[in-house]
Design brief:
single chain; 229 residues; alpha/beta; Rossmann fold; eight-stranded mixed β-sheet; globular; disordered N terminus
């Protein structure tokens, strides 16, 4: 008796199944091949753009060496001296009789330089000294200016300076700027040292005029003269 699995009908059914499986297999292979062909034919992805280099900053301007300071000019010298004159008053103790009353002004005389008088006016503008106003006046040679708390005699002529000092017996703190000014009777004498304003002090002249100078003022003087020293 023949095996039922090998009957004609069974074999025909089996052949149909095999053909169906083969068709499925062929369709799958074609899809894979098509996918592979599509990938091969697809344009290659553009490479990522290279990162642009960071811009190099332009070099800055070269450092310039500082220029030497110009030599002191007359205007600069006047400004420094005017500031000193104002400061001198704050470090000077005047006799009790130097002021008539608590409201009496501080009197400053200037001889021989209208420019210095103008500069000093700028320096003291709006300022007081121990609550007292400051008054300026020009002093001409041959005049008797009367009482002055400070007298500045400009100029380099020691003979003229001596005449002005003798003509102002009421001046207490006398300041000059000539060679040998202390010998002419001034209390303080300006001088230039390496283009800087410096000053010498005569304690004898200060004592004679009954004024006392602060030790702080004396400590910054170039030379303090006492007696013949």
């Amino acid at each position: 008796m023949p095996d039922p699995f090998f009957t004609r009908a069974a074999l025909a059914s089996l052949c149909r199944m095999l053909r169906a499986l083969a068709a499925v297999a062929l369709a799958g292979a074609a899809g894979v091949a098509g996918s592979a062909e599509g990938l091969a034919q697809a344009p290659a992805a553009a490479p990522a753009p290279a990162q642009a280099p960071l811009p190099v900053p332009a070099p800055g301007p070269a450092l310039v060496a500082p220029q030497p300071a110009p030599e002191a000019q007359p205007g600069d010298e006047r400004r420094v001296k005017a500031a000193f004159l104002y400061k001198f008053l704050g470090y000077t103790e005047f006799p009790s009789t130097a002021f008539g009353d608590p409201a009496s002004p501080v009197l400053i005389g200037v001889s021989g330089s209208d420019d210095m008088l103008t500069e000093l006016a700028r320096t003291v503008a709006g300022r007081t000294l121990n609550g007292r106003p400051i008054t300026l006046k020009a002093v001409r040679e041959g005049d008797n200016p009367g009482p002055l708390h400070l007298l500045f005699v400009a100029g380099s002529d020691p003979l003229r300076v001596a005449r002005v000092l003798r003509g102002a017996p009421g001046a207490l703190l006398m300041v000059t700027e000539c060679e040998g000014g202390l010998q002419q009777g001034s209390v303080i004498n300006f001088k230039m040292v390496d283009e800087h304003v410096r000053f010498d002090v005569s304690l004898d002249a200060a004592e004679k005029n009954n004024v006392r100078l602060s030790s702080r003022l004396l400590s910054v003087a170039s030379h303090v003269q006492k007696g013949n020293i």
